[in-house]
Structures are given as structure tokens and as C-alpha cells.
Amino acid sequence: MAILMETTCPQRPAACSPDETEAFEAARSSFDVLKGEITAVGVPLSADSLRESKLDELGAQAVVHNWIRAAEADCSRTIRVCYLGRLWLLSEADQAARTLPACRLDDSAEGPCWTDKRAMIRDIDRQVSPLKHRLLDEEAWPVSDVWGASASTAAWLLVQHSDAEPDFQQAALSKLLQAETLPRDERRHAAYLMDRVAVAANEPQWFGTQGACRGSTWEALPVRDPEGLEGRRGRLALGAMTDYARTAASICTN
């Protein structure tokens, strides 16, 4: 429900049209009923609750597949509610695929845990791909000052994790950069995506957001104009490179 609550309509009710107000209230009511029904039978509603549920691999995949099927269904409400709901479902499926099962970095890359994780990511990405294309083709980029921060972040995650589709990433980046305004979060999203596209093309990145573990240390992949790196990061509120590398190193030890 958070992804709906963050839209400008519920934040500024006086600006809502009657249709928007009716659709939002119907969506909130339906969501509360659905949440109660699902919670009663113990079915997780998000990637975080799915991890905490301790379901086995087959059970977890069944939940994620249900999210995707729900995103495929025709919407009976306005496009805003439909769009937000689908973004939420697909982004939660994307996150679940990448966090389940919880493998350790020191597990064998060819061992059962990482093998199962890679298979789950491929399976979920294959199912999500046509839906995310449809969503991002039918609307302009869902900037946070119109659609809410959760919607913008969900769209960015879906694109950021589309490494097998570099043309889609480039097209989505172009759409993001064409937005009339780019709030702070979107500027940061654009930086990450620019780096992702550059690395995929075997080119130096701009902002140093992409890197790899070297033992317990995280190191950025090659950066163009290294002397100007801190200035570029500062203009987008990305923080100092040393701090970023220290935070990123957490993935190298867990």
C-alpha cells in the first residue's frame, strides 16, 4: 500500500479529481481486505516477508509466480492505481529472485545454492520481462514528485537488473533523462544506470557505482576522467568514493 500512499493525490487530497479519489479509496479498501485475507493464511506480501517466512524454494517460487500472475491481470481501476500495483508486484518479484535463497559469498559458485539462485533469477526475469517492457513503454518515467518515491525506485530496479537486455536499459535511460524534472532520487538513479550501460558496453563508467569484490574489498571498475570523479558524484549527492566503497564492501563479506 505504501507505493499508493506516496502518490501526490493522497499527499494533497485537495488536488485529487473525484475519479482519482474514488479509485484511491477503492484501492485502499480492496488492499486492506486482501492483506487481511493473505495474512490470515500466512502468504507473504513482499520480498522481505517472503524471506522471513522460511518457505522452501518451491514454496517461495510459487508465491513469486502468483505475484507475477497478478501483475498480468487486467486492471479494473484507473491507470494510476493499475500502474502502481503492477510496478510493486514486479519489483517485489525482482527482489525476491535476487535474495532467495540466501547464499553465502564463500559458498562454491558452482554449488547448489548459487546454482539454484541463478536459475531462479533467470526464471523470474524471463516472466517479468514482457510486463516491465509494457509498463515502461506505456508511460513516461514515473518520477517521484508525481508517482511517489517507491514507484520511481521500483522502475529503476527493474531496468537496472535488465543486464541481458542492454537496448532496453539504454531506451529506459533515455526516457528517464527526458523527464521534465529530475528530483534527487532520479538523478542518482540515472547515474547508476549510466554506469551500468557503460560497463555493459565495456566502456569506462562515469560515477564509479559499478565494481567487484577483491577478497573482502570492493573496487570500482574503470572510470573515465578519474580526476573529475568526486566532483561528478558530489553534484548528484552520491557521497565520497571512499565512503561508497566502504559501504559496498559489505557485499564482499556477507
Keywords, separated by commas or semicolons:
two-stranded antiparallel ribbon; mainly alpha; 254 residues; 2 strands
Mean pLDDT, as a whole number?
Answer: 84
Overall geometry: globular
Share of helix, binned: 55-70%
Low-confidence stretches: none
Largest sheet: 2 strands, antiparallel
Q: How much is the radius of gyration in Å?
A: 19 Å
Structural class by secondary-structure content? mainly alpha
**Strand numbers in spatial order across the main sheet:** 1-2
Count of DSSP strands: 2
Please give the alpha-carbon distance between the first and last residues.
31 Å
Q: Quickly count the helices.
A: 13
Portion in strands = under 5%
Helix and strand run: HHHHHHHHHHHEEHH
